[in-house]
Amino acid sequence: MIEVEHLTKYYGDVRGIEDVSFKIGKGEIVGFLGPNGSGKTTTMRILTCYMPQSRGKARVAGFDVEERSMEVRKKIGYLPEHPPLYNDMTVRSYLGFCGRLRGLSRKQLPERIQEVVRTCALGEVVDRIIGQLSKGYRQRVGLAQALIHKPEVLVLDEPTIGLDPKQNADIRSLIKSLAGDQTIILSTHILPEVSLTCQRVIIIHQGKIVADSKLEELTREQTLEQAFLKLVGYEEAGQS
Amino acid sequence: MRVVSVIFWKEFKSYFLSPVAYVVLTGFTALSGFLFYQFLTYFIRVTSLMRGLMVKGQVVRDWTLVDDVMSPLYRDLGVFLVVMVPAITMRLFAEEKKLKTEELLLTSPVRMGSVVLGKYLAAIVLLVLMLLPVGVYLLIVLRYGTEPDAPTLLLGYAGLFLIASTLAAIGVFASTLTENQIIAFFVCAVLGIFFFIVGMAGNSIADISLFGHTLNLGEFLRQLSLITHFSNLVEGRVEILDITYFASLICFFLLAALVSAESARRS
């Protein structure tokens, strides 16, 4: 579903990611792991056609992100690190706006809104102004926005950041419930989250992939935390 | 087209969800009403004293509603627009940047051109609403004035819409440059004032020679000024050149806005 080959992105002279390659099959849930600033967001932004890569290729559902950008954008639901919410709109009108932007017809909207509101448990706040919602609700509205057009691929950038444990668990079970129909790639630096939701982990460090394997394989002889710290070179950093 | 209308409705509603529309509409109506009243009472006073405009004891022209009420009103309102229009356009893109909602637009299957156009149209419709009360003054003059020059009055009124549309295009562009609405406001106001006054330099600049051709730089600067073309309309003269001028400025700044909005991808 997602094919990335030798993807490289430079911001001026600063390296964002370098030579990143991976493949994600249909229906997989992949955890994208890495310390802050390791290139998770950069990779996701290239996949979602937010910005162009410097070198390399990326395809989503068979479409190249540069050449067939419009097709790719239709296939993807994207929750950026900061949920893109308009504070003066109600949840309902916001979801309607996002649905229309993604090409839903006016007739399809009420049904789709109803469905994502149910999936994301937004029933109580659907007619409230977004600016008045708590962080947990805002995050869920962001997720609902990404789901509104039934995307084949879901890209979630740190979906659980800043949530309390209860909200965290809610989002996790929500993501799990989506598995199967949708290919999901989610980034995080919270390790337990990965072991609870994902089947596969890609660990990225300083813009390069340092591990890409099934979760069981990675955690056979050590905990995920040990594996992660070893891969991102924690010992060296700890000594200096 | 679908995207243009989706963006348009979202932006247009958003004007009325915040205080912006109410403040701007009230402010402009109050100021224009005050001005119209002042020009009208002055006109009534002065017509009872003298038959026409006097220079050294000679009447050089008669008082008319066009020259002495509506034209000055239109000119002053044109200047007001330099402050009003940026207030309306400043948030269009700056707020998207600030709230990070730009990322939503840039990753949705929509062309940025449609987004720019939708936002521009929302500003235009609000400006039309803002300028409608001026039509009431026009109607008063047409109804109660003695032999008012209707075509000239209507042209001047149309000129106000053209000025507003041009400034709105500049404002949309200014808004794409920054996430700070105050900066967007000032960039638009400064560019607007520049286009108002650039013609003044025309009188003090000599012709320049370039590769054997003489270039009338003064005339060029005069033609670059909004005032020159606006004055033509207010005085009841309209040429293709004037309309082309407004249309090209609008296109230029909307294209600049498009390029600038797209460039967010490269930051």
Structural class of chain A: alpha/beta
Query: Mind telling me the C-alpha Rg of chain A?
Result: 18 Å
Query: Could you give the order of strands across the largest sheet of chain B?
Result: 1-2
Q: What percentage of the residues of chain A does DSSP assign to strands (E)?
A: 25-35%
User: Measured on Cα atoms, how large is the radius of gyration of chain B?
Assistant: 21 Å
CATH class of chain A: Alpha Beta
Give, in spatial order, the strands making up the sheet with the most strands of chain A: 6-7-8-3-9-10
Q: Level of helix content of chain B?
A: over 70%
Give the integer mean of the pLDDT values of chain B.
91
The CATH superfamily name of chain A is P-loop containing nucleotide triphosphate hydrolases
Rough outline of chain B: globular
Let me know the number of strands of chain B: 4
The largest β sheet of chain A comes out as: 6 strands, mixed
- Total domain count of chain A: 1
Report the CATH topology name of chain A.
Answer: Rossmann fold
Instruction: For the record, give the distance between the C-alpha atoms at the N and C termini of chain A, rounded to a whole number.
Output: 41 Å
Helix amount of chain A: 25-40%
Description:
The complex is a heterodimer of chains A (240) and B (267). With 240 residues, chain A is of the alpha/beta class. Chain A has one domain (2-239): Rossmann fold. Helix content of chain A is 37%, strand content 26%. Chain A is built from 10 helices and 10 strands. Chain A has a 6-stranded mixed β-sheet, with helices on both faces. In chain B, helix 3 (65-89) packs antiparallel against helix 8 (181-197), helix 7 (150-176) crosses helix 8 (181-197) and helix 7 runs parallel beside helix 11. Chain B is globular. The model of chain B has no long low-confidence stretch (mean pLDDT 91). In chain B, a hairpin with a 2-residue loop joins strand 1 (52-55) and strand 2. Chains A and B meet through helix 2 and helix 3 of A and helix 1 and helix 5 of B.
